[in-house]
């Protein structure tokens, strides 16, 4: 009898723990606002990974229309380097906006990109925002919506001496893809 009660007690505790995990997972999955981003981010990443990659994106610089863009993809950047993105010119300090919903995975300063932000979006695409003048309220692990400010247009990194602009790139498992057609899509 005691062994049976011990087994039932163990089963009851395991069932309660599983129910708690399922409840927390469901709350995070559907975005219960009181859960901090750090708790929701792993569930958000899984959900984003299951979504298809976008076929159209908004221009990630405030006030810039798709018709103002130039396709700088593939332009020479030295002896053995090609441009893996497009440059979107705007006045210094213009807000840089997330082109997609996602999770900020990294904020960093690099010799080439200067101040950069990386956002993991749908279809496991990585969206790269470079030459920023500064960051908005972004932080690694933060969940972002399309149009949410990430930073501000600048010319940091190897863009010093050039007019302020955002270098915007998209990377997926096969490497970089040209964002220009996605930003110009209807």
TrEMBL record:
Alphabetical list of InterPro entries matching this protein: Cell_wall_metabolism_enzyme (IPR050570), Dup_hybrid_motif (IPR011055), M23ase_b-sheet_dom (IPR016047)
Pfam families, A to Z: Peptidase_M23
Taxonomic superkingdom: Bacteria
Listed transmembrane segments: none
Domain M23ase beta-sheet core: 82-179
Ranges in coiled-coil conformation: none
GO molecular function, one term: metalloendopeptidase activity
Protein name per Swiss-Prot or TrEMBL: Peptidase M23
Species this protein is from: Bordetella genomosp. 7
